Amino acid sequence: MRSDSLFKEALEVLPGGVSSPVRRFEPYPFFAKKGEGCMLYDIDGNRYIDYCLAYGPLILGHAPEKVISAVCEQIKKGSTYGTPTKAEVELAKLVIERVPAAEMIRFVNSGTEATMAAIRLARAFTGKDKIIKFEGAYHGAHDYVLVKPGSGATAAPDSPGIPTDTIKNTISAPFNNEEAVASIIEDDDNIAAIIVEPIMANIGCIEPEDGYLKFLRKITSENGILLIFDEVITGFRIAPGGAQEYYNIAADLVTYGKIIGGGFPMGALAGSREIMEHISPAGDVYQAGTFNGNPVSVTAGITTLKGLTEDIYKELNKKGEMIRNGMKDILEDNSLEFYIAGLSSMFQVYFTERRVKDYTSAKTADLEMFKRYFHGLLKGGVFVPPSQFECCFISAAHRKEDLDMTLEVMEESIKKAIK
Ligand SMILES: Cc1ncc(COP(=O)(O)O)c(C=O)c1O
Ligand SMILES: N[C@H](C=O)CCC(=O)O
């Protein structure tokens, strides 16, 4: 069966034909058959150089041998136990070694669960109710954070079904704007936490301006507010210690997902002992999960973190530079207005004359042009996330020849996309 027919069947049984909204694109999404290294294969016989990488977790590429063999060994011994395991302790130590501000960690099943638990913990710890999040930031699909969100919810924000009583505790602010945050805090002494994606990767890819994260650190510390870094994407991607290491800032709480599970479902929240010991059963902030610390995901996480050597980070940075510089050259040669964003192994292009620094400037991008660019890439065998408001990722499995080929396809697709 081909993707077009399978999509018709899927529409009958899955809302919108997919299991997560971002996966849908027009006229129909391709259905994956297998992934290998940096390549993704569909059931129609096509092969794509993959820069979506399942929206970030696959930093070592698809099906890395060491991860797969460790997971297979684990599965033979059981898939879940409902008891503690030695592996959880090992993974906790691996994270804590890499992230100095993390002294304890709770494993959960997704980034959504991680941010939900972190916000509850911050509220309990501070005795305050409200949170500040940034416009266009995405922290998962739960009620506390679906206010001016990014990712798939950019098109239809502020989902129905969320009580107004919940939403009133979530204040959204423009990113990279010190005055906006300062004035919210000045007017309201009931703020428990600021939650921030240190690099906003769910509205494309937006970096913090110089000093912005330091400003957030300072204003939160001075006002008894916890600073939560949502590192579901940046964690273990831009440096072993994530954005905290990259920007040299210690957050009070940090949330993880994606890479920490080595391609299997997992999330986590971490922080100082003083804060984390409020989580049940050490403390009374309830957090629980049948699959928390699942041994299969934990095994994949351990193998992945151990595989992320210094050399791999250096290579990832180089590959990112190569793609970003190559794209700049192509766009300049074609006299297009554009903004190339990203660092390390993250990148995105916006077809706009504006410098993209927040939700409002990101929204000035030409979305029709992006659509044509996306379809051109797909036709040429390159898969990036189908939305302007997602980030592209490079893995350790991408080789120089894959990047060269990608730039050729990008050039062709951009030429065709210009109207
Ligand atoms: C920054 C960020 N936080 C939280 C989430 C939610 O993670 P998950 O999809 O694993 O629930 C995501 C992605 O989905 C994310 O990019
Ligand atoms: N942008 C989201 C995560 O980073 C995409 C994943 C999803 O919601 O399916």
UniProtKB/TrEMBL annotation:
Recorded catalytic activity of this chain's protein: (S)-4-amino-5-oxopentanoate = 5-aminolevulinate
InterPro entries hit by this protein: 4pyrrol_synth_GluAld_NH2Trfase, Aminotrans_3, Aminotrans_3_PPA_site, PyrdxlP-dep_Trfase, PyrdxlP-dep_Trfase_major, PyrdxlP-dep_Trfase_small
Protein family according to the UniProt entry: Belongs to the class-III pyridoxal-phosphate-dependent aminotransferase family. HemL subfamily.
Predominant location: cytoplasm
One annotated Gene Ontology cellular component of this protein: cytoplasm
Annotated GO MF terms: glutamate-1-semialdehyde 2,1-aminomutase activity; pyridoxal phosphate binding; transaminase activity
Protein name per the record: Glutamate-1-semialdehyde 2,1-aminomutase
Pathway: Porphyrin-containing compound metabolism; protoporphyrin-IX biosynthesis; 5-aminolevulinate from L-glutamyl-tRNA(Glu): step 2/2
Residues that bear N6-(pyridoxal phosphate)lysine: 258
Pfam families associated with the record: Aminotran_3 (PF00202)
Cited CDD domains: OAT_like
